[in-house]
């Protein structure tokens, strides 16, 4: 294969198939018919002398050869889009674009509705595709071009080469329990009572327990753990039917307390706040659409003066 054999339209199809792992969804992403994408796949298989994608009941499975092409292809497509095809500015009022976002579980509950509300007013042609992803896989999502911007508390990115911007540190950890908890009728939660109660440890997938458990160990406060749950959303049904207490971000506690079933209590010791940042890959640093979106996120979600902590390798 030589450069003469390459067709940019075929590379677009390959990029979409790698992202969607479904011929129909790839066609929708590209604005093409399914038959056109299928025909392009036939040409791609011949070009690379590989099946590339194997049909499965719910889509297609990428071959090792296709997976090996994913990261370099994402770089090439981003370079073409950002340096050759990019416009001088992004006009949110007229442009059509789907942004690929990574929000943690709490971010999907708190940030996504706020951001969508603004976008419906100022950028009617913009769509959001939001995912969470396992913590161990999130950096790979950036490398493969499946995520363009991450917003939230992501400790796994602290030592990465991603660009990052601090938005705020206004998510203190608090305690929450059902409103009629027999041991909390007066609303006071002391260190001694905190240690006596049984606990639900929630949000392990998001890394929230790592914020407060070292503090408890340092102070010699032992708490009995009845259940550990990867999800933050699981806190509500578990606490509603038990006498357990949980340490959660304040934003989640306020959502839970909205209907009166739960009560929020100040933590008996000072825990670190959940610092919220936005992260992006260096190849998208100058993308006009992402520059605009980052500014919008900073304006709408940032509660303090912002500064770039450019951790990216240049």
Helix-strand layout with pairing:
Layout: H1 8-20, H2 23-30, H3 34-48, E1 53-56, E2 59-62, H4 64-84, E3 97-103, H5 105-122, E4 126-131, H6 138-143, E5 149-152, E6 163-168, E7 173-178, H7 191-196, E8 198-202, H8 209-219, E9 224-229, H9 235-240, E10 246-249, H10 250-256, E11 262-265, E12 276-280, H11 288-301, E13 307-309
Parallel strand pairs: 3-4, 3-5, 8-9
Antiparallel strand pairs: 1-2, 5-12, 6-12, 6-13, 7-10, 7-11
Describe this structure in words.
The chain is of the alpha/beta class and 314 residues long. The chain has three domains: 3-84, Arc Repressor Mutant, subunit A (Orthogonal Bundle); 97-170 and 275-309, D-Maltodextrin-Binding Protein, domain 2 (3-Layer(aba) Sandwich); 173-265, Periplasmic binding protein-like II (D-Maltodextrin-Binding Protein, domain 2, 3-Layer(aba) Sandwich), CATH 3.40.190.10. The chain is built from eleven helices and 13 strands. The longest helix has 21 residues, at 64-84.
What's a concise summary of this model?
With 314 residues, this protein is of the alpha/beta class. It contains eleven helices and 13 strands.
If classified by CATH, what would the architecture of the largest domain be?
3-Layer(aba) Sandwich
How would you state the average pLDDT, rounded?
Answer: 86
- Gross geometry: elongated
How far is it from the N-terminal to the C-terminal residue, by CA? 32 Å
SSE pattern: HHHEEHEHEHEEEHEHEHEHEEHE
Question: SS-based structural class?
Answer: alpha/beta
**How much β-strand is present in the residues?**
15-25%
- With helices defined by DSSP (H or I, 4 residues minimum), what is the helix count? 11
Task: List segments where confidence is low: pLDDT < 50 over at least 5 consecutive residues.
Answer: 304-314
As a percent range, the share of helical residues equals 25-40%
CATH homologous superfamily annotation of the largest domain = Periplasmic binding protein-like II
How large is the radius of gyration? Answer: 23 Å
Q: What is the number of beta strands? A: 13
| CATH C-level category of the largest domain | Alpha Beta
Strand order of the largest sheet: 4-3-5-12-6-13
**What is the fold named in CATH at topology level of the largest domain?**
D-Maltodextrin-Binding Protein, domain 2
Query: What count of domains describes the coordinates?
Result: 3
| Major β-sheet profile | 6 strands, mixed
